[in-house]
Amino acid sequence: MKKLVSTAVITLAAVAPAFAQQDLSKVEIKAEQLAPGVAVLFGAGGNIGISYGEDGTILIDDQFAPLTPKIQKAVSDLGAQPVKFLLNTHWHGDHSGGNENLGKAGAIIMAHDNVRVRMASDQQTAFGEVKASPKAALPVVTYADGLKLHLNGEEVRVIHMPAAHTDGDSIIYWTKSNVIHMGDLFFNKMSYPFVDASSGGNVRGVVTAADQVLAFANDQTKIIPGHGAIATKADLQQYRNMVAEIITKVEAGIKAGKTLDQIKAEKPADGYGVNTSGFITADRFVETVYSMVK
Ligand SMILES: [Zn+2]
Question: For the segment 109-118, what is each residue's pLDDT rounded down to a tens digit?
């Protein structure tokens, strides 16, 4: 429980400068191998995916700037070369906080077009203003729909998902290793979804993104969520159904003439095995859904 609380506070640091002075000195970066040459790194902030081998190392997301040396050490401990490519699943600081360090160290940064647009200018968010990032932190390769990387013996597909967690989300699919990184399109049980309306997110897009991933995942697929432990296709299916059902319940309440308070009192988000007091509480998620479907 304590761990969940501290994760939530650190997640807030993503978009809230007031929370940015977290003590990250005690954070350990832990690696979990998912396939030969593919691993996940857990620390503080968004989960990091890594592919490494003869063609070099690509990192998916990079947590917070003070953690960069520990992340580089974890990369080296896997037997991987220094980071050659870095891809951001979206612009939030708990997924892109290490960009400046890694960019200066020579990594080529890639992301959806809107990630660069948002990082390059001051952003007003639900948690306050986030200042523009320095040039070295910005993606230099951007795309509208996605791209393919041909690295380390497999095709790695990067696919943009329209307006969901933000307006710049990408998922990464290792086609041979059968691993998918979903960024914050998927929180595995530690919180309800965070739909960042100020960054162009939409709750219906979260369902659409999950449907797209479910269409090519199978029972052996290992799914890296933005936050939480490694998940299966069944976990994602459950998450998708939860979000869709909550939308349906809130829509029905609105149609029946109920107020937001009356709908919240019926607890439409309870009973799904998600931590109801996590980073995004059950009530807060219902408020988000209400604001987006009414
Ligand atoms: Zn995020």
Answer: 999 999 999 9
Residue ranges and CATH numbers for the domains of the chain are 2-242 (3.60.15.10)
Buried b (16+ CB within 10 A) or exposed e, 96-111: bbbbbbbbeeebebbb
Using the mean position of ligand 1's atoms as its centre, give its distance from the Cα of residue 258 in Å. 31
**Spatial distance between the Cα atoms of 185 and 176, rounded to a whole number of angstroms:** 22
Q: Which of 227, 254, 253 lies closest to 10 in space, CA to CA?
A: 227
| CA 165 to ligand 1 centroid distance, Å | 7
Q: How much distance in Å is there from the Cα of 95 to the middle of ligand 1? A: 7
Dist. CA 218 → ligand 1 center (Å):
25
Separation of CA 255 and ligand 1 centre (Å): 31
Q: In this predicted model, what pLDDT tens digit does every residue of 168-201 receive, in sequence order? A: 999 999 999 999 999 999 999 989 999 999 999 9
Residues 98/62, Cβ–Cβ less than 8 Å: yes
pTM over 0.90: yes
Q: What is the whole-number distance in angstroms between the Cα of residue 217 and the centre of ligand 1?
A: 22
